[in-house]
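Per-residue structure
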Amino acid sequence: MKKLLFYSLLIAITALSTLVTIAFVLPSKKVPNYSDEKLRELALSKGLKPLPASFDKLVELVDDVSNPMTHKKIALGEELFFDTNLSKTKTTSCATCHSFDKNLKNKGAMLTMLAQKDSKITDCAACHLQDQSGVDRFTFAQGDAGVMHPNLLNTQSILNVGFAKHFTWSGEVSSIKEQSENSFRADYKMNMNPQELELRLKESAKYSEMFSEAFDDGISFENAAKAIETYVKTLVSRAPYDRFLEGENSAISSEAKRGLANFISFGCKGCHNGIAFGGQSIQRFPLREFAQLYDIKPDIETLHRAFPFENSGGFLGKDNGHLFRVPILRNVTKTSPYFHNGAVAKIREAVNIMAKHQIGLNPTLEQIDEIVAFLRTLEGEIVDYEEQK
């Protein structure tokens, strides 16, 4: 018995020594030091372009001949987006889950909930919960009457989705209009059928006038979704990163510039690409095993899991094949928790998971901090294109 214990201990020590040795001899990813001009040129060459500052440029990038953007249609879409009367219980709007502080029209789901419980909201809560960046900050999405998503999915940001090609976590929805229609119908979202929605709209003199001005055929379920689509396309958040690309070298810090270089050199831009840093493709997640050779202390408990975190809700992506729409990284540092079921609370942990399990790298703490510093330069305010009318 003692001999068995001795050999077991010897094997364990040998294995641990091997892991430690490999961890030290594995080459680290060397990233060149770029000048500001070279880094800017590199980012632009990879398609990581600045968001449009003018309405005309926005229309040029996102307009659709099947649903042309007009100011009348956008104004109607904004009214619909914030209207709680368009849900079954008349308590939920699109903005309840996709919350942001724009002209103080919407407090957001969490702030509203707190206000109902206590009329004296602290100054800290009032500021930080209004700035939602297009999400509700709940772990799992909650629809009308508090109904949970059947797969316990996390709410994705509504900002900058006009530049996306795929929508929802599975990526199976191909337009904002289609997703708007689905959101109205779903019993775990707005829980409204087309007939009931049209009836409520026709009861409003305001909507009768606005629909007649925006559409030749007036009020309809489809036109409501079209109006919301045009409005959502204007929810664009320009950030310091955009100013850097446009020539303002001081717009982002040296640490953030190294983070951008890491982001490009590590291969993150391979999936998080395009003007919005994501939303362009459906990719497998995770790509790699969890207990890598460089993991000196592998988490044995995760080896049987489908993901490097607990998969509450059991969602496995498109066709149950671990296929997910690549999330948009614009404003990502303000949209925690992360991943499809909100399992990860901190952005640093999310970056580490992606480095290890998507691109097969073991980043240093410094490299993680640099990438996070870069991601913070993607934090932006919603552009007020209406001022340009």
